[in-house]
Specification:
90% helix; 3 helices; 0% strand; single chain
């Protein structure tokens, strides 16, 4: 796995956990949703071409995008409960 990619993922995850700004959290959510959509589109192309090694690499990246998605959902859920 590309170390630059991992650094970016860890930095985004830290931002999700540390931000107090709802707009920043929403921005991170939109960015991550875009990454997920683009990655799934690319995955379909790779699979249709039979490029399974590249598809496997992309699946690894998708796991990290989903971890960010889950972290954002946890923060949103936490905020909903703290307001109530």
């Amino acid at each position: 796995m590309d170390s630059d990619f991992l650094d970016e993922i860890f930095e985004k995850r830290d931002r999700v956990q540390e931000t107090e700004d709802k707009e920043e959290l929403e921005k991170l959510k939109v960015e991550n949703d875009t990454n997920l959509k683009e990655s799934y589109t690319e995955l379909a192309k790779l699979l249709s071409k039979g490029e399974f090694d590249e598809a496997a690499d992309l699946l690894e990246k998708l796991k990290y995008f989903h971890s960010i998605e889950n972290a954002i959902a946890e923060r949103e859920d936490k905020e909903k409960h703290s307001v109530a």
